[in-house]
């Protein structure tokens, strides 16, 4: 079921630290910096933040208490760790609707000390347990390899070429050049994409997102509070998929996941696919983007290659600008928080030189294909 | 517990994985109650996968119940070892310990199991890396890693079209 909150919940306030290739400060310090920036941006006294969601994927995680004290929160009425992107926003929205708290700080802290996944091999015996015992002994141990397997089949099935899909990283890089937070600062050409190092064919280096360090935050608050603040309120109009089980993420031929729910997503938001002014699609790897677009019915099955070819359809200024912050491929891997932050910036008209004219509704998909979640964000 | 024979390795980190590579660790399956029949059959140079006695559907990798009908009685049915490549990658990054030359990882759909969600993951040997293609007909062979472990592997059948032999392979299924 797609979901909405009856009490409308708004995004208010964006906070970033500059993404870096190396961790340059203690992560709690970065977290406090991003949180205070989000509060200042929203026009909310940080002492009035009364809910917190901190997302990390490394171990050990930072001490939430240190962050709470550093921000100066008076009380923590609601706390839930983990999740990412749209699911985090949806969970916070539900807590606010339930009256558990008024204003939630939602934050992702990235620390490249730990890769997102490594094959779990016993150093003494070489043994691999569980389902990976059918994969790791054959040299299949990383997400990027599984993504490449899926991408190969998808491209074969619909006769889609690297010369077509390469426009996604090329255009997103151009967008990143307009984004002061983006870690990548040089343009790339399609030819450079095609000649970038092969990692696991058909996956190239420029198909992989860029691991970064830093803290990235947004606030969510009640509609009545949001309306009293300087920025135009941005609403989470509907979402699907925040609690989907996690299947093997190499999916069957026809992905299911959120796909059957896309119609409900649009119905509950009261916004049709044709009314979307920008697309924010999770891009841990280039190949997630066309498959997300087709799964959500934004492009007919098998048509994504033709649609993105040449790049004009997905550029800022084109009919459906894609990942206008540069996405994870070029802004940096923020596990979906970058997509949400950019959607907020665009909808309230604070995206600077990347601003799309007259934005009212956008779609944001965060997470792996089939197990991620999708939301529609918009303004009145 | 650490000693000189098995130094402490943090396999959660990239450094730990590189250490495993340097130590020459070769990943092997750790059979459990659910998976042991598969590996035991491989040791006898037989390929067997789960088949539901209620609905006759095959499935792989093994699960406790039938993913099609929920049936709880699954037999380990012998299959011919012939199949077609559903998808594959050519890995040139070689991050996984035990792999030091570019290699193919493929998912093979056995001829007995028309459902394409039934896939055996294996390497493709016996041809050039660039010879591999989707829908390539392949057959199983058995790699005895040591006295305890045998890995089913696959190679092209005589019907496969090998570019390296100047044969033209079929184009993508549209």
Walkthrough of the structure:
Chain A is an alpha/beta fold. Chain A has a domain at 9-115 and 212-227: 3-Layer(aba) Sandwich (Peroxisomal Thiolase, Chain A, domain 1), CATH 3.40.47. Chain A contains 13 helices and 12 strands. Chain A has helices at 27-42, 64-71, 85-97, 143-158, 162-165, 167-176, 190-194, 223-227, 262-269, 288-295, 304-308, 327-330, 337-348; strands at 9-16, 51-55, 78-79, 103-110, 127-128, 198-201, 203-204, 214-222, 234-240, 278-281, 361-366, 373-378. In chain A, the strands form 2 sheets. In chain A, strands 3-2-4-8-1-9-12-11-10 form a 9-stranded mixed beta sheet. Chain A has a two-stranded antiparallel sheet with strand order 6-7. Chain A is globular. Chain B has 174 residues and is mainly beta. Chain B has one domain (30-156). Helix content of chain B is 10%, strand content 29%. Chain B has 2 helices and 9 strands. In chain B, the strands form 2 sheets. Chain B has a 5-stranded antiparallel beta sheet. A 3-stranded antiparallel beta sheet of chain B has the order 3-2-4. The longest helix of chain B is centred in the N-terminal third of the chain and has 10 residues, at 14-23. Chain B is globular and about 50 Å long. The relative contact order of chain B is 0.15. Residues 1-5 of chain B have low confidence and may be disordered. Chains A and B meet through strand 5, helix 4 and strand 6 of A and helix 1, strand 1, strand 5, strand 6 and strand 7 of B.
């Amino acid at each position: 079921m797609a979901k909405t909150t009856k009490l409308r919940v708004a995004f208010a306030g964006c906070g970033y630290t500059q993404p870096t290739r190396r961790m340059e400060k203690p992560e709690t310090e970065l977290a406090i910096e991003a949180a205070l920036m989000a509060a200042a941006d929203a026009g909310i006294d940080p002492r009035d933040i009364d809910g917190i969601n901190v997302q990390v994927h490394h171990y050990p995680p930072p001490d939430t208490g240190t962050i709470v004290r550093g921000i100066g929160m008076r009380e923590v009425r609601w706390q839930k760790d983990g999740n990412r992107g749209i699911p985090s926003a949806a969970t916070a929205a539900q807590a606010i609707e339930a009256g558990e708290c008024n204003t939630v700080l939602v934050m992702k802290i990235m620390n490249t000390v730990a890769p997102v996944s490594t094959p779990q091999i016993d150093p003494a015996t070489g043994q691999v347990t569980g389902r990976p015992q059918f994969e790791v002994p054959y040299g299949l141990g990383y997400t990027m390899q599984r993504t490449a397997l899926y991408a190969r089949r998808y491209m074969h099935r619909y006769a889609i070429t690297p010369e077509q899909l390469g426009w996604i990283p090329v255009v997103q890089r151009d967008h990143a050049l307009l984004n002061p937070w983006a870690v990548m600062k040089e343009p790339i050409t399609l030819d450079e994409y095609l000649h970038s190092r092969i990692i696991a064919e058909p996956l190239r280096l420029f198909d992989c997102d860029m691991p970064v360090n830093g803290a990235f935050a947004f606030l969510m608050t009640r509609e009545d509070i949001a309306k009293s603040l300087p920025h135009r309120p941005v609403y989470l109009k509907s979402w699907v998929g925040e609690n989907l089980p996690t299947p093997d993420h190499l999916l069957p031929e026809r992905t299911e996941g959120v796909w059957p729910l896309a119609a409900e997503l649009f119905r509950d938001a009261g916004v049709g696919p044709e009314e979307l002014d920008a697309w924010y699609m999770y891009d841990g790897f280039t190949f997630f983007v066309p498959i997300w677009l087709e799964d959500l019915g934004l492009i007919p099955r098998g048509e994504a290659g033709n649609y993105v070819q040449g790049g004009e359809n997905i550029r800022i200024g084109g009919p459906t600008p894609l990942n206008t912050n540069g996405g994870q491929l070029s802004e940096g891997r923020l596990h979906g928080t970058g997509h949400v932050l950019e959607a907020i910036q665009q909808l309230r008209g604070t995206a600077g030189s990347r601003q799309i004219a007259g934005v009212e509704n956008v779609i944001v998909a965060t997470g792996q294909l089939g197990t991620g979640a999708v939301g529609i964000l918009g303004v009145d | 517990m650490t000693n000189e024979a098995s130094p402490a390795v943090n396999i959660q980190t990239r450094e730990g994985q590189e250490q495993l590579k340097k130590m020459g660790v070769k990943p092997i399956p750790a059979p459990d109650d659910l998976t042991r029949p598969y590996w035991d059959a491989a040791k006898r140079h037989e390929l067997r996968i789960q088949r539901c006695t209620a609905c006759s559907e095959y499935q792989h990798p093994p699960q406790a119940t039938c993913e099609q009908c929920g049936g709880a009685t699954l037999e380990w049915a012998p299959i011919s070892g012939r199949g077609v490549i559903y998808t594959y990658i050519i890995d040139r990054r070689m991050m996984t310990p035990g792999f030091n030359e570019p290699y193919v990882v493929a998912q093979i759909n056995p001829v007995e199991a028309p459902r394409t969600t039934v896939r055996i993951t294996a390497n493709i040997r016996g041809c050039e890396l660039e010879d591999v293609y989707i829908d390539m007909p392949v057959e199983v062979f058995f790699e005895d890693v040591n006295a305890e472990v045998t890995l089913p592997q696959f190679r092209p059948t005589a019907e496969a079209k090998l570019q390296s032999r100047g044969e033209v392979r079929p184009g993508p299924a549209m």
